[in-house]
Amino acid sequence: MEIVDGLIQTLIAKKRYATNEEVQQIIEHVAQRPLATYLIKMTLWLCQALATRGVAVPATKLPSAQIHLLKRIYYDGQWPAGTTISQFETDLHRAAHHEAVQLWTYQWANEHFAGLLAPSHVRNVPEPEDFIFVAYSADYGTIKTGFQASGVHTIFTEDFEHLVRHR
Amino acid sequence: MELQSYSPRKVDALLTNYEGFIRDLPEVTAEWPLMEKEEQSHHQVVFMEVWGKRRVLGQLYQTGQLANTQEVRLASMDQLLLEQAPLLERCFAFTLIRLLTIFRWGTPLADSPQLVRIETAATSLNQLAQALPVPA
Lengths: 167, 136
Description:
By secondary structure, chain A is an alpha+beta fold. Helices cover 32% and strands 25% of the residues of chain A. Chain A is built from five helices and seven strands; from the N terminus they run ααβαβααβββββ. The longest helix of chain B is centred in the middle third of the chain and has 26 residues, at 37-62.
């Protein structure tokens, strides 16, 4: 396991705030981690929903990140049509590197996460928002999802366990 | 919570994300025991996103920012969510008492005479009972 993943898990387990140095370590770490590529079976409803939007799904299983990206493009209008996984990953890394990035740690369904929120640079899309949120799993060492959001109040609910803002 | 003004398209996007999760539930939960943990984690992350969006929908409903058709769609999906409570409990460890949060957030169901049929474990009923105020 990566040292920083262990750090995220420890911050959550011990309910403590990260030092400034630890905050930087986490941000630098997330800003170069890959998107989750585990193959996920496409559900019938998702395939139909995409088909009504003119999208032919190429396979019965797609990488997790690609499923999230398809929703960002065709449900949310938050990324341009034709965005590749690599471009999506670059955008999320760029968000993590933003000088005004905010950092949280939390648990969801017993999985340990670092959540980063930064001003969005993805503007030339049908429905841009002010921020980009990046959810990084310390348990899998991958960025699990990213999406644009109008603020932190649209992301976290009381069901996020041990939610702590570090920056 | 301050709510910006949401365009009809943004509201539809919130509803589509919510509906997608709910419509997928029977298929996802049927295959859940066969999934590797990483695939289960993917669906947990989808729920994590969707639940935040559901709270926003509640606030949009309470502030009168949903069109009639959007209110109808939200009520329909909330009803389906509740009726699938056993699936959420079994696979997402999300008990009925947590799902009922939608009534605090705001749901058209709160004013609806519609019957909602919910199956739930007796332990969930006990949780609900324990959360009731004790009479003086």
